[in-house]
Design brief:
The protein is α+β, with helices and mostly antiparallel strands. It is built from four helices and twelve strands. The chain has two domains: 85 residues, no CATH class; 178 residues, no CATH class. Keywords: Membrane, Transmembrane, Transmembrane helix.
Length: 273
């Protein structure tokens, strides 16, 4: 309210100066004798007032243009926010399945189209691997591609906990399998050999897995939604080579990390089919 009154008062003062003070000042100046020749009048009063009027008109047009630009900029922001809201995605980690425990992923750049993350500290080709099939329950929006930026896995039994910190292998995106209610995709995890051995030993017992995963979901309109998904899972079968995990009873959580509008050239797919 005070801000609005200030604008009104300022506008009134400017109007008074432009349409009262300036003409009176010009009229007064023309009645006075110039102290030096450089200040002597070369225009008559009409020329001076016409010049001032033209200058004021320019200033007024400039401010009107500035107001129009500000309104157009605000409108563009509203349209952008609406576009993002209509294409944003929200999912919750629902279940995971550990696969390929007895294999090692090779030829990563030519034979693997899924997301790849690598444990910190891996040296060269001396690594083990496993694959995680992830299922996310979809709450809103449809995404066509995903990028796993990083993932933290905790494998726990009654006495010990293995913590695995991973980062994305490259900057590529990967396709998502879409069902009516779920998004599904695979992630290959590159591990130190000793880490993989510890995981397999824990999987032989009744263990649970806690997972934090930072992902980007990209819609068909190239709107990216950054999410951090968290879940706690317990083993639901007894097969050592195919390990299915479901939620332990605690609800999974999802933290929104912002939205980005990509151009088509920014979204590079790992392997084009």
């Amino acid at each position: 309210m005070k801000h609005g009154k200030g604008i009104i008062i300022t506008t009134v003062i400017i109007v008074v100066i432009c349409f009262v003070a300036v003409p009176l000042g010009v009229n007064y100046a023309f009645r006075q004798e110039a102290p030096v020749d450089i200040f002597a009048a070369r225009w008559d009063a009409a020329d001076a007032l016409n010049y001032i009027a033209t200058s004021l008109a320019f200033i007024g047009t400039f401010f009107l243009g500035l107001v129009a630009w500000k309104q157009n900029n605000d409108l563009q922001k509203i349209e952008t926010n609406t576009f993002i809201a209509n294409n944003s995605c929200e999912v919750f980690l629902d279940s995971i399945r550990l696969k390929n425990l007895n294999q090692i992923a090779c030829n990563l750049d030519t034979e693997h189209e899924e997301s790849i993350v690598a444990e910190e500290g891996i040296q060269g080709c001396n690594y083990g691997s496993l694959q995680i099939e992830m299922s996310f329950k979809r709450k809103s929006g449809y995404s066509t591609q995903v990028r796993v930026n990083d993932m933290v896995i905790f494998v726990c039994d009654e006495t010990t906990t293995i913590d695995i910190w991973t980062k994305r292998y490259d900057d590529t995106f990967n396709k998502i399998a879409i069902t009516e209610d779920h998004n599904r995709f695979n992630v290959t995890v590159l591990l130190k050999p000793e880490t993989k051995k510890k995981i397999i030993d824990h999987l032989n017992d009744n263990c649970k897995i806690m997972m934090d995963i930072n992902i980007e979901l990209v819609s068909a309109s190239y709107v990216s939604t950054k999410l951090k998904c968290r879940g706690e899972f317990i083993k639901s079968n007894t097969d050592n080579l195919e390990n299915n995990f479901e939620l332990s009873g605690k609800d999974s959580m999802c933290f929104w990390g912002g939205n980005i509008i990509y151009s088509e050239k920014d979204v590079t797919v790992r392997m084009k089919s």
